[in-house]
Amino acid sequence: MSFSNMPVVSVKDTTIFQKQHVVLSDVFFEIAKGEFVYLIGRTGSGKSSLLKTLYADLPLYSGDITVAGFQLYQIPRKTIPFLRRKIGIVFQDFQLLMDRTVTENLLFAMRATGWKDSSKIKQRLSEVLLKVGLGAAGNKMPHQLSGGEQQRVVIARALINEPHILFADEPTGNLDPQVADEIMEIFVQINRSGTAILMATHNYQFLEKYPARVLKCENGKVLDSNIHEFDYRTTWFY
Ligand SMILES: Nc1ncnc2c1ncn2[C@@H]1O[C@H](COP(=O)(O)OP(=O)(O)OP(=O)(O)O)[C@@H](O)[C@H]1O
């Protein structure tokens, strides 16, 4: 298989742990380049633990995971920043530096990931801000922005290095429904331009409005709508 056909995420025979506690076992799935996949399941079912393992925030003790070409089993600590440059991460809580402007927040992430050329930095800054509909907000402080706008900045930050995949952990969990919808629309646009997305969500309206493959954490396993038949609506309680 040539590298260009390789899945962006490949998980084989993996166990997901929180400390010594097994959260998920026998996990197998792949995510193709440019694919959009939802991650659902009741609270405590293991969605965040799975995502954290995929972006190497939790160690992989058992199984075989490759993300954006990086093997995660025993990945050296010094390699993790290079993995993180190939992926984007968006959380529910916005995690911006509150004492810095939007531009400074993005610059901080760019410098941390090796950007040096000031004209390229300027160009990429305006590209990512435009992508999230914040072309004019560069000089604002986070507290001058709404929750939805702050989340847009986080998405812009996650896009800086043209990630192969975005991992989003309930990215609209703190937003009201209208704003959540606008943020979801941004993810859809990002996906249409070729970036794979794995999004944990409790918002089943997204699944109805933007149908896509679903991975579901349930009873310590991960079910895959490509393989298993399940109706997410009848089990959507948490
Ligand atoms: N830091 C931690 N230390 C120990 N156990 C943890 C930790 N974080 C989560 N867990 C446990 O791991 C299991 C899975 O939790 P996880 O946060 O992955 O679920 P989740 O599906 O993302 O839930 P939610 O929808 O509420 O975000 C739960 O039993 C939880 O109590």
UniProtKB/TrEMBL annotation:
InterPro entries: AAA+_ATPase, ABC_transporter-like_ATP-bd, ABC_transporter-like_CS, ABC_transpr_LolD-like, MacB-like_ATP-bd, P-loop_NTPase
ABC transporter domain span: 9-238
Assigned keywords, A-Z: ATP-binding, Cell cycle, Cell division, Nucleotide-binding, Transport
Pfam families cross-referenced by the UniProt entry: ABC_tran
Alphabetical list of CDD domains matching this protein: ABC_MJ0796_LolCDE_FtsE
Family statement drawn from the similarity comment of this UniProt entry: Belongs to the ABC transporter superfamily.
Designated name of the protein: Cell division ATP-binding protein FtsE
An example molecular function term from Gene Ontology annotations: ATP hydrolysis activity
Domain of life: Bacteria
Listed transmembrane segments: none
GO cellular component terms given for this protein: plasma membrane
Gene Ontology biological-process annotations: cell division
Physiological role: Part of the ABC transporter FtsEX involved in cellular division. Important for assembly or stability of the septal ring.
